[in-house]
Amino acid sequence: MIASLKKLYDNRTSDKFATLTLPNGETIQFPMYSGSLGPDVIDISPLKKADLFTYDPGFVATASCSSAVTYIDGNKGELLYRGYPIEQLAEKTTFLQTCYLLYNGEMPTEAEFQTYRAEITRHTMVTQRMADFMKGFDSAAHPMAVMIAVVGALAAFNHEWTNVKSSRSRQKSAALLVAKMPTIAAMSYKYSIGHPFMYPQNSYGFAENFLYMMFATPCEPYRPDPILVKALNRIFILHADHEQNASTSTVRLSGSTNANPFACVSAGIASLWGPAHGGANEAVLKMLNEIGSPDNITAFIEEIKSGKSGRRLMGFGHRVYKNFDPRAHVMRNTCHQVLEHLKLEDDELFRIALELEKIALEDEYFVERKLYPNVDFYSGIVLRALNIPTTMFTAIFAIARTIGWVSHWNEQHTDPEFRIGRPRQLYLGSKKRDLK
Ligand code: CMC
């Protein structure tokens, strides 16, 4: 088991330097670090002494921390969780095994897994007060709005697990969050349709239990279809972590203030909600519905390319992947399997998606800019086939990403370089002036 990032600092070698010459002729030397994989990074902290800052809007060339959780090679289209390729994890593991791996650094033994599973399932239920708290929301509330509030409020119900300096407390709060997210998400859905909340079934697997809480009613027995359970398990694994993305960076920045984990994860959910990030799967479905027919694709693509509408092809492009998104490959196959199983191969939206993908992949605009389908291009179609309402898509992403958030948050608390995150700026405002 990986105990702390501190020990992994031995893997960081630094035998090279970069030199910067300032306009006044002064030079500054920066140590360069090599990690276990990926490009070298330049440690720019010596700039502090010269009272200079780097400028990198959107952090396109900035490594904000050291990490041992996830590795992405955007040129190769490679994604590794703790060294294991995403394709293998999606094929051979359950989501909870992947959760254990992400948090602890190694795949669990059978005994370790049973202990972990027992800890998660023991905490799937939320208190009745929490359920009552839900009733204050408008029934038309977006599930992500409800989740931001309810997950933040978990701190009010779990005071004893907010000591961020204790590794046991961090481990416990991480398990609570992983366990309760599906329950909170399903409750937000049930509340929106006016149905009674369904209690978690702890004998069911993680994905199966979520489908149960979403679709069962107290009136009749319900057991989710195993093929659909498998597909959801994959969606959870594929979305479990993705290195220092916007929501994980949000969690880390919040965590850097020593804020409690429930508040940090609530901040992560808020960041994930945006359509450029986790909200993309919902936006893809809206876009496909709007296109409506394969005949309208060409005109739609031309509109995007003209830039006049300011719109983007949702589910396309990625800040890091410039070849292909390996998660999209797995999701595309899952999409075929699910639609075949449900005899929905002729599904109109899926046909539009396939045609749109084909046209975009051959179009010079998308080729030149290295824009490929990302995981969310297909995940929305699978979720729709599973009968999940569109407004729940990003909530499902949040359920999956919780383990990534808490793994990074835990890691940052073991980092010898831990300190509050505090970026600077290039000030363009008014010079000092006096009030008249
Ligand atoms: N459709 C059309 N043009 C695009 C798209 C797109 N989806 N994405 C990027 N571009 C163009 C952009 O207009 C720019 O063109 P130009 O150089 O002519 O100005 C060029 O490609 C580079 O774009 P960028 O904004 O610098 O790229 P970025 O790395 O900042 O943005 C992105 C990455 C994912 C936010 C963006 O590709 C996007 O908005 N995609 C659609 C939303 C989406 O699918 N997001 C899900 C990401 S995967 C799930 C997750 O990890 O959250």
Automatic annotation (TrEMBL):
GO function term, MF aspect, one: citrate synthase activity
Alphabetized UniProt keyword annotations: Acyltransferase, Transferase, Tricarboxylic acid cycle
Pfam families: Citrate_synt
Known pathway: Carbohydrate metabolism; tricarboxylic acid cycle; isocitrate from oxaloacetate: step 1/2
Gene3D superfamilies given in the database record: 2.20.28.60, Citrate Synthase, domain 1 (1.10.580.10), Cytochrome P450-Terp, domain 2 (1.10.230.10)
Catalyzed reactions: oxaloacetate + acetyl-CoA + H2O = citrate + CoA + H(+)
InterPro entries per record: Citrate_synth-like_lrg_a-sub, Citrate_synth-like_sm_a-sub, Citrate_synthase, Citrate_synthase_AS, Citrate_synthase_bac-typ, Citrate_synthase_sf, Citrate_synthase_typ-I
Keyword flag Transferase: yes
NCBIfam families: cit_synth_I, PRK05614.1
Family the UniProt entry places it in: Belongs to the citrate synthase family.
PANTHER family (alphabetical): CITRATE SYNTHASE
UniProt name for this protein: Citrate synthase
Source organism of this protein record: Candidatus Doriopsillibacter californiensis
Lineage per the UniProt record: Bacteria, Pseudomonadati, Pseudomonadota, Gammaproteobacteria, Candidatus Tethybacterales
